[in-house]
From TrEMBL:
InterPro entries: TPR-like_helical_dom_sf (IPR011990). It comes from Psychroserpens luteus. Keywords: Membrane, Transmembrane, Transmembrane helix. Residues 165-186 are annotated as: Disordered. The chain crosses the membrane at residues 7-27, 33-55. This is DUF2892 domain-containing protein. It comes from the Bacteria. SUPFAM superfamilies: HCP-like (SSF81901).
Amino acid sequence: MFNKNIKLVIAGLIIAYAIYQFIEGYIGNGIMYILLSLIFIFFYFKNEFILLAFLKLRKQDFEGAKSWLNKIKNPSGALIKKQEGYYNYLHGVMVSQSNMSEAEKYFKKALDLGLSMDHDVAMAKLNLAGIAFSKRRVIEAKQLLNEAQKLDKRGILTEQIKMMKDGMKKSQGPKQHYGNRNMRRR
């Protein structure tokens, strides 16, 4: 795993060598080196281990995703800000299966660092709403749920949001009083 700045230095050196190849008259080699440098530039913006972790997570292989994420030793040095947000987002998704408090920290950190897609932000807020509701912070949960609903423009999370709202309504239903107030006085 290369540091994020080393990837740019390698890409710059490859581009410089490609220019040298163009000057020498080896146009095909120069084009090949330019394409090779684009791979390093791509991996500067999209970390290879996070991409592999997303692929494992898509197959519901949490252990495989965790092993890819554990290969990132120093997230703040190896990742740009958005990648670090996704790093924390993925950890939050995996930890939410077992430890809600730790998952809450990961999701909040992911939102602070930033996620590039609206449906990822909506998913993080939906998870935070579920955690807040399970910890009996109902007002915060409702606010996060409304924010998630606004961010879900494509309707990907509509079903989950509806289920969470229904669950909140059921658990906060009216308290039953047997008889009315006047009946108790008699």
